[in-house]
Amino acid sequence: MALxxxxxxxxxxxxxxxxxIFTDSVSSLKALQRFQQNKNLVEEVRQLLxxxxxxxxxxxxxxxxxxxxxxxxxKSASEKTSIDVHLEIPQRSMKTKxxxxxxxxxxxxxxxxxKGRFTFNIFPDVKPSTCIDNxxxxxxxxxxxxxxxxxxxxxxxxxxxxCGEDSDDGILLYYILSCSLLGxxxxxxxxxxxxxxxxxxxxxxxxxxxxxxxxxxxxxDIGLNQGDTxxxxxxxxx
Length: 238
Known about the structure:
- The chain is mostly helical and about 240 residues long.
- The chain has helices spanning about 5-15, 25-35, 40-50, 65-80, 90-110, 115-120, 135-140, 150-155, 170-175, 195-200, 200-215, 220, 230-235; strands at about 20-25, 55, 160, 225.
- Helix 1 (about 5-15) runs parallel beside helix 3 and helix 7 packs across helix 11.
- The radius of gyration is 34 Å and the shape is rod-shaped.
- This is RNase H type-1 domain-containing protein.
């Protein structure tokens, strides 16, 4: 907005003299007429205006001497190899630019990071709006939860799942999709479902919470300690 340097010059050299400033920018004049507060260049220009300044609009390219001189000066300035006038970046623009840079850096680190790949396969794109405030869903999306393998790994208990089909990687997804001991809690969830798809459906989300709640609170019924025997018929019937 060329009005700002013009007003700065006026306040420095003709502070108490009434001046008329002409511009062919309708958008600039309309922006100054709006009542809402703007923490940007428009607000900075407003701060420079006082009763000694009158703003006028003139039509461009019709031979008005002052307007033609301003256009000529602007064209000449655009052909320079260096900039001799520096305007501050508006605060709003700076916030937008910084937010964009931070999101790009976050996405790059998330994409090429070596950890959290299970979660990455569910949420490949970073979004500030992605917020999981339920502990069971947090476990499901990170593959960290109270499985029998987890308790064995940290020497909290020496047991496997009574179904006899869990693996040593302790993947939580197995209990959500396949464990026969938790089959009575599944109505919509099917083996082979992807976690990203399950999280899009309210019914399957409810089932995930119920399954992990049971896994946490019924460890004695699900975990098989060493030395115990599996009643295969009872396991399959469950």
